[in-house]
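dumping the sequnces here before i forget
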Amino acid sequence: MSDATFIVVAAIAKILLIWAIALAALLPNLVWAERRGAGMIQDRPGPNRVGPFGLFQAVADVIKLFMKEDVTPTYVDRFIYNLAPWITMMPALVTFAVIPFGAPLDVTIGGVTRHVPLIIADVNIGILYIFAFASLGVYGIVLAGWSSNNKYSMMGGLRASAQIISYELSMGFAAASTFLVAGSLRLPAVVEWQQTHVWNVVPQFVGFLIFLIAVFAETNRLPFDLAEAEAELVAGFHTEYSAFKFGMFFMGEYANIIAASGLVVTLYFGGWSLPGVAFTGVWGALASIAVFFAKTLMFIALFIWVRWTLPRFRYDQLMDLGWKVLLPLSFFHLIVVAAFVAAK
Amino acid sequence: MSLELVVFAIASGLAIVSALAMVVVKTPVKSVISLVLTFFALAVLSVLLSAPFIAALQVIVYAGAILVLFLFVVMLLNLTQEAEGHDERPIQRLLGLVSVVALGGLLLGVTLKAGAPPVPAAGGPIANVKDEIPILGRLLFSDHLLAFEALSVLLLLAAVGALILSKRRFD
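..and the predicted 3d for all of it:
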């Protein structure tokens, strides 16, 4: 097997592996976990009829979404209306390309040993790639709101665009601090630094909080789900969507949660590494993948916990928090971290 | 035909078509989307030129932030259709056409005269560097420091100016 073929085969294998774990295995069960979690927090059983513990509820839901009639209202802008759900799915699908999900592995085929880092694309721009696609994801929501030709949807889209612009900056500045100490924009470098030093969450706890809050806002989750806000906007930007297209928004939200949790873990909680543990060989690589997804699952649980615990922000409170609290705080945090790095 | 050429053809074709669509399309929201597509295609071209950093900045700053703001304003003002009716700016249109033709001719002439671009030397400052971002940062804060600082002052001035203009209207 030549080098070029090997790289292509390895890349395809990695993509399939990450999509199989994150999308095929995690995503449907996440919907179940959210509904059961909601039930637990609200002191009711939640869906428990389909299969053991209601585990097949997700399958039933997906079949229902496929089978339902796809209603397209008369006055929508058809092209954009059909395009919007796809744009929402995109950032979640591409984010995992630059997140390292396991310890590097040595593979020997036909006597030739090759070093395989468990990351799909180890590009120099690393985090900027994620921010670039995350910032494009907002178009899905905004355009869905606009093309629906419905004032509630429109309001949802407007809110989403302002909200995401407001929190993107704080998120970027908080993340930049982790790259300052690691000295590279590559996510594997950030993981390596945390492996040899300390998890970023300890010295940069403030940065971690800013990043986490901004991530909640960027994924449109409660307490920041003002684009949906069912009490005032019916269902906000996806009021006019039904059947499979609604399902795509639904799945997109959960896929974004998985990707965002993976990113938080990588930046602040050591990624796939554990302090004092060296992952070597095939079993080591498998164990590190398990560690990475175990950490990711913890943050997914946090997302669900927060959603059913906190009430929704009012819109002016949301803007105040973003511009008057988080943004100055993230500036200050970045300057302090930069001073420490420079002093070393 | 190499893969690079195929990607180049697709990206540059998309850039041209979407740039045209931006001007021609009647709905302002669709114009904004066409502009997003144009910027995205230009970012792909930057990647082809081995400048992924520039590509990422292009998408984050232009497609991801500035155009979302454009879209926000267009939606907020609820501009659904361009005002129909008689042409209110016949002279401006004519002048615009003349300058477009002149600029296009100039660019075409220069491009044709220049011939093939020189192949960069193997030992250049950016060649064979694994990570170009530190180099860019160092250049920005040493050789081009004055221009960099002047630009930031200019941006600050623009922000303050906008604030004063909008405040005057309410007072």
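The longest strand of chain A covers residues 102-109.
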